[in-house]
Amino acid sequence: MFSKLPFIQTHHAGDKYIFWLDLTSSHYANEATQWLRPHKIQFIPKEVNPLNILKVQPIEGFRSLLVNKVYEGGWETKTELQLQRRICRQIK
Fold first, then answer.
1. In the chain, domain spans
2. CA dist., res. 84 & res. 70, Å (int)
3. What is the pTM of this model?
4. Under a CB-based contact definition with an 8 Å cutoff, are residues 27 and 1 in contact?
5. Are 28 and 62 in contact (CB under 8 A)?
6. Which of the two residues, 39 and 78, has the higher pLDDT score?
7. HSE (CB half, 13 Å, CA atoms) of 6?
8. What is the tens place of the pLDDT at every residue in 49-83?
């Protein structure tokens, strides 16, 4: 989570977004939530985060489908650029 801040600042400066954390206890640990607040990163509070409702969290389904398409047939990558290109081809 901490490593995402430079990405957010570079690609989403000024955008409105909210982090939707999964219910992993480390994501809601005091250290994590106390780090998010001063960086003005909004997140869904644990109390209102639904448990295992995949239809409400479509990114999980999308990721699963994409991973299956990218790596079908035992495809492997040697470089990050190869992976990026493969992902772009599979999304089209």
1. 1-49, 54-92
2. 10
3. 0.47
4. yes
5. no
6. 78
7. 1
8. 776 565 666 677 788 889 999 999 999 999 999 99
Q: State both tokens at 25.
A: 């206890």
The rounded distance, in Å, linking the Cα atoms of 21 and 19 is 6
Give the 3-state secondary structure of 33-76. Answer: HHHHCCCCCCECCHHHCCCCCHHHCHHHHHHHHHHHHHCHHHCC
CA distance 19 to 28: 12
> Which token pair is 92?
């089209």
Take residue 27 and report the two structure tokens written for it.
Answer: 């994501």
CA atoms within 13 A on the CB side of 48: 4
